[in-house]
Amino acid sequence: MNSFKREKMELPLSAVWLMNSIAEYKGKQELYAKQSPQILKTLLETALIESVESSNRIEGVTVEHARLKPLIIGKSKPRDRSEEEITGYRKAIELIHTKYKSLSIIPETVKELHRLCRGESWDAGKWKEKDNDIIRKYSDGHVEVIFKPVSAAKTPEMMKQLCLSYEHSISQLKYPELYAVACFVLDFLSIHPFHDGNGRVSRLLTLLALYQHRFMVGKYISLERIVEQSKETYYETLNKSSQGWHEARHDVIPWFNYFLGTVLVAYKEFEERAENIKPGRGTKTQIVTQVIERQVGEFAISEIEHECPGVSRPMIRVILEELRAKGKVEVLGIGRSARWRKCDNKT
After folding, report:
1. What is the pTM of this model?
2. 143-152, Cβ contacts within 8 angstroms, sequence gap of 24 or more
3. Which 8-state DSSP code applies to residue 77?
4. Which partner for 244 in 5, 45, 125, 249 could form a disulfide, CB atoms 3.0-4.6 Å apart?
5. Domains identified in the chain and CATH numbers
């Protein structure tokens, strides 16, 4: 496939540095898994909720925040199309978590991930039937076509060739593992094989491929959340690297550097959380406390709840009251609209 056609490849020093840094973090992940299983259990639950929410929200699929935890952790039944897609994405992530060693990256797997994350949609698990364009919408209402993906007629064969090219590059050690994964995802998005849901499937495939190369950080830190937080850069680098893709004259490096940066940010966050949270019953308390300490200016309980999806609102309120008793935070106002701030932020 197009990103795998280069026989000679020289990576810039920036990419080499990023890969070396990621390799160092990768070497530590098993140590944390053995020493802090309770911490990782808490991080896993939080990452699952954040990943489902962020990956769907990037594509405009949202549900009430209060419904997220019941749908993702409590296994509540979906009530509408958006909630079906939320629970479907959760099922897709769970499939990757439990079966990644035996899930070959082949067209059938790609379609199965799409079927899961599209819920009961008519196009679930089916290649696109009509040609589609990647567009940019402007505030004044006009629309610009920024990339024309592979035609619907050519999509099945192109997806077959992409999966074969990726497998060949891995089995023959043609490229560094992370470069091969980045190329695969870039080519997948350039083919754009589905009517809808391409972005979500690309993030699921990223998670699956990283797991298979033992980069497990996405299990504990949401890569989808990091992508959402850098969404403008995500689209900018993807657009840069897709120019000339059809002729195999494109430059993979902008996308590759972004991809590496996302993985590195996740590993840094993972190490920070794993080192700063002591194992035991206080794990969730310390996660909430860390989030509060990062706040600047006034904040609401709902904002803390959003950053700690694995923790209930009553527990957050209890922790805030304990911190208030210690003189570390103060409450501004009363009732549900009350806001808080750290005492050392007072002016």
Report:
1. 0.81
2. 146/239, 147/190, 147/239, 147/242, 147/245, 149/190, 149/191, 149/192, 150/190, 150/191, 150/192, 150/193, 152/127, 152/128
3. P
4. 249
5. 2-276 (1.10.3290.10), 283-345 (1.10.10.10)
Q: Which two tokens stand for residue 331?
A: 């409450």
User: How is residue 135 annotated by DSSP?
Assistant: E
The secondary structure of residue 145, as a DSSP letter, is E
pLDDT value, residue 347: 42
Tell me how crowded residue 124 is: count the other CB atoms within 10 A of its CB.
21
Each residue's pLDDT tens digit, 186-241:
999 999 999 999 999 999 999 999 999 999 999 999 999 999 999 999 999 999 99
Q: How many other CB atoms are there within 10 angstroms of residue 316's CB atom?
A: 21
Residue type, 43: L
Structural contact between residues 189 and 258, judged by C-beta atoms closer than 8 angstroms = no
pLDDT computed for residue 38 by the predictor: 66
